[in-house]
Amino acid sequence: MRSMTGYGRGEAEGPAGRFTAELRAVNHRYAEIVLRLPRPLVALEDDARRLIQEEVRRGRVEVAVDWRPAGAARPRILVDRELALAYDSALRELSDVIGRKLELTADILLRLPDVLIVDQPDIPKDLVWGTLSEALRAAVSALVAMREREGAALAADLGERLGRIEEAVGEIAGRAPAVVEEYRRRLEQRLGQLGAPGLVDPARLAQEVALFAERADITEEIVRLRSHLDQFRRLLAGVGGPRSEPVGRQMDFLVQEMGREIGTLGAKAQDLAIAGRVLAVRTELEKIREQVQNIE
């Protein structure tokens, strides 16, 4: 299991030069890849995005690539001589018009548009991509390794919290039969305090207890809660490794369903002891919900 946060860095060197890729990942509901490539590499943006998405299924990942060209890939700086002479001629003409000598210094000349031209050689895409992809893969591997380390810590924490919920649900299930029996005793005691125990119709009493038992029956909620807990456990146990599938959204859904079931259970049980265990389950579920938001 992986968290959505992490950092990865990779380098590679080849005929086109040295490439350095840095990846920074944070939480996000979906997969969002934000690329910052040197201008000559913009044509490779889709290839870079597909490579990263092979391993990153969820989260916002900011990708920064630095390229230090080498050899024939290194850009050349050219001077447009005709344009520079044209600027100089225009300045001389302006001097004559205004009757004041104007000087075109080298500093001013170099800042005028298009005097200096950066000539980027036409490099075969395969030559560049071979080295760039190597740097990206190294960065992605480092990012995934960090995410998996954090994911292992999250899985351990979630496992402990699930254990506490399972224990509480077991206590609730064990307590449920006693709730009906206590209701029967309280009803008989109340009738006895009214001074007419002999006038109570046993069939009527049994009917009243049966109606309460039906209203307070939490069997379905217990069964569904245990099913959701079991599914959550399987997600924790069944993921791992470099090709594990994202489970964050499934876990988030199960947490929502467990919250709904424990809420219904608490409303139906009408018992103080069960209410205490329901509160404990709600507390653990809220902590699990916060942790799940960090899982890919």
From TrEMBL:
The answer to whether the entry has keyword Phosphoprotein is no
Needs which cofactor? a divalent metal cation
Keywords assigned by UniProt? Endonuclease, Hydrolase, Nuclease
Positions of the Endoribonuclease YicC-like C-terminal domain:
173-296
Span of domain Endoribonuclease YicC-like N-terminal: 1-155
Which PANTHER family would you find in this protein's record?
UPF0701 PROTEIN YICC
The protein in question is named YicC family protein
> Which species expresses this protein natively?
Caldinitratiruptor microaerophilus
Lineage at the top is: Bacteria, Bacillati, Bacillota, Clostridia, Eubacteriales
